[in-house]
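Revision sheet: structure tokens.
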Amino acid sequence: MNSAEHRYWLLELLAYWEGRVTPRQLSEHWQVSRQHASTQLQDYLQAHPDSLDYHPSSKNYQPTSNFQPQHLSGDVTEYLEWATRQTLPPSKDSPGQLPHEILQHPTRRVTPRIMRPLVQALRENRRLDVDYISLTHPDDQGRIIVPHHFVNTGQRWHLRAWCEKSKGFRDFVLSRFRGTPELMDTSNITLDQDKAWNTQLTLILEPDPRLTQLQKQVLEEDYAMNNGQLHITTRACLANYLLKNLQVHPRILEGEPEAQQLVIVNKDDIKPWLFG
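Predicted:
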């Protein structure tokens, strides 16, 4: 995102989620003069006419009924992540951080000694000689890998990499590397060869059929379902993590439907990509 795009992003973020935006507010966040912020705001209005109206009584710009954000995802998480980490002191135009609490997951121990060669190997498409432990093999297992992405599953970070020992792409939990990874030569393994990474799956979910109609409606509104179904597209290798985060068990039906809540409609379509 370049400078202009980032400024338009913040302008739209405030207008869309807070319902108002002022030059003073923008100048504080952008760290520019109010005059410059006003010029930027007018540039935005020229590019997106009829999107904001000026309200003299409150001295702010508010979105019109024609306002269609061009630089936002539309996901409230985007706004909340920004609003809960901003560090400006509160003022009339910028009230400061939203009151919030963030659930803290247990810290996974990962050292710079491990991370630095992982990062370099990923950027340079290098092979890495690593020691790695797992619940299946709790003793140190030496192997050679070629990493291509870090992945945040919501609860932990892992490294997606080609494993020469397994002769396939695998997920390696960062906190399970041991020692100091040793950089090796460049590899001819590329991201394009990771079929599970490049395959897009659509998970189709719906409320557990054992729920009452009113309970189903609660979930349909929670997840903004269309025709009683939720469609989520994800990489095939990440489907298991997504289902786990949604507390959906592909192979087990909870005894109580309130615990299960959602079920997979197209289980046969995604079965080849599930763990185990």
